[in-house]
Amino acid sequence: MDQIDTTTIRNHIAYLADDRLLGRKPGTEGYQLAVDYVISEFKKMGVQPAGDPGQFTQKLILQNTKVDNGSAKAFLSDTKGNVDSLGFGIDFLPYAHPFSEKASGSGKLVFVGYGVDIPDFYSDYDGIDVSGKVVVFLAGVPDGISASTLISHFSSAGNKMNIAAEKGAIGAVLVYPINSFPNPNPTIQSTVGVNPEKTVAYSRGFNGNLDFALTANNSFLSQLFLNSGKNLTETLTALKSRKNSSFEFPFILGASYSNSFSQFESENVVGLIPGSDSRLKNEYVVHSAHLDHVGIGRAVNGDSIYNGAHDNASGVASLLEIARIYTKGKAKPKRSVLIVLVTAEEMGLIGSAYFASNPTVLKSAIVANVNTDMPTVIAPLLSIVPLGAEHSSIMNNVKFAADYLGLEVEGDPEPEQNRFVRSDQYSFVVNGIPALHIKYGNKTNVPGFDMDAFIKTWRAKYYHQSADGMDGIFDFGAAKTYVQLNFLISYSIAQTAARPEWNEGDLFGIK
Ligand SMILES: [Zn+2]
């Protein structure tokens, strides 16, 4: 691990974050330059191609969907046939539908609380039939869910819509805790990955499994409750403490809106380091990091290129260095190791959702995912937060690696950030593969130094800003520790005879 080289890491970041790559947005020349760079580095190291047959790349189709605002209509009708039309941008906004040129539907409206269904714990769907109906649910989750990862998972709008679809609903309305929409006439679009037949959508958000989906706000919810015979405040209080409050409104809700589509290609890059054990080499530990960033945006101080040096050139650089250690060092992993650089993370975890659903190796042969997204190497790395590891036996591998390097393991200090569902490890988790993402911890060796405040200030200035370039703050010693740690975690998983397992009864494991 002493061979891990800070200059090499720095050079990778400098190339990937150069203005020439124009912020690495999928579908642009800049992103393709990043793809070419990774492939040429792989070739230099002797990493083998493991994308589409014989290729380093795995192609996928990205589809952009745009809603025609002028076409969007929604209505409520009561049992007497009185119809109220709802205001676009006032009462509702549609979600872009990835498959329907004209998304439309109507059905009885059912309030389903937070729209969560948590086995052996709490369900908003207990005792209520939503089949063929339209559900309305709130953002967030009830109190009492202990793990920040589960709070993230059950708060996810896409997951709530998936649950609604599984329960047979045909439409959904997600109520955000805001009183009005900030922009009554926004551009509504979303990007998903699609299969060649364009029948399956890969994304973290709405994937077209309902006839339509809308967002609404507090004032819409208040209007609904006014005519329902239920007290909204009491209902919200009951829900918070997990008292099922689902009921059917005496209304029908209908909606329709037009969508237009455009498609373009992008690529994940997949490299293989073959395992050395005759049996275990048929199983894979996957290192992932997103190769894309957000491209060109609003100019700040004359700079419109969002270089993404930390996010996520530093993560990609980490993986390239891990690949070099595996191929040039003496540590030969028993299991095979895949180095996967994914596209379109910033558009909603699309490249990883596609890879984890359609991996270029047998899906059941992937034993774990170690994801890297913005390691935040801006101060000495003394403690870590292994997001997601607490759900499976890979926590043992993390503890081994952290121990070896003298790093402390901390819990998530900011569960409200929902980090677990915000990067590519989540795509592996929802496909049943134990996964983690190592986030920096808050420990410091400078007395009185407030690491938490330092990171928050840094984040406000650099995160998803054009300022996130090579001229920002870097601690390459921390980058080296980070690479050592991630390498040791995957190496330890690759060497352990038993494959990683979800904890007994873990919610992600029984999915
Ligand atoms: Zn990122």
From TrEMBL:
Record-annotated Peptidase M28 domain positions: 268-473
SUPFAM superfamilies reported in the protein's UniProt record: PA domain, Zn-dependent exopeptidases
InterPro entries: M28_fam (IPR045175), PA_dom_sf (IPR046450), Peptidase_M28 (IPR007484)
Protein name: M20/M25/M40 family metallo-hydrolase
Annotated organism of origin: Algoriphagus jejuensis
